[in-house]
Write a structure and sequence with these properties.
Order of helices and strands: EHHEHEHEH
Number of strands: 4
Distance between the termini: 23 Å
Number of helices: 5
Strand order of the largest sheet: 1-2
Strand content: 5-15%
Radius of gyration: 15 Å
Length: 107
């Protein structure tokens, strides 16, 4: 599983609303879903995709109908793109921006 480093998320959400990379990795490991977690520093994952060459590539439902920059490399490498149809229940954005209470994820 590839995840963006803090710099990208600072740009996207602001430092105040970014869950620190170490904490995000810790949370993902608790799910026991990813076999490996790779942190990448680019704003989009095309270089990582070219190196890892997965069989499938999954995006959340918030990417439905949106042109993603990595689509070209996915097509070139014949990697199946799956966009999850079900709405996210607990996306990090909804947790951070949807909560009225102050939550510190970087403990």
């Amino acid at each position: 599983m590839g995840i963006n480093n803090n710099i990208y998320l600072y740009y996207k959400y602001g430092k105040k609303y970014t869950i620190d990379i170490e904490r995000r990795i810790e949370i993902l490991k608790l799910t026991k879903i990813p076999k490996e977690i790779i942190v990448f520093s680019e704003f989009e994952p095309s270089n990582l995709i070219q190196i890892v060459k997965p069989n499938i590539y999954i995006k959340g439902s918030d990417y439905m109908g949106i042109e993603i920059p990595e689509k070209q490399i996915l097509n070139e490498l014949n990697i199946q793109l799956i966009i999850q149809e079900e709405q996210k229940i607990n996306s990090s954005s909804s947790i951070i921006f949807g909560s009225k209470s102050a939550v510190n994820f970087n403990k």
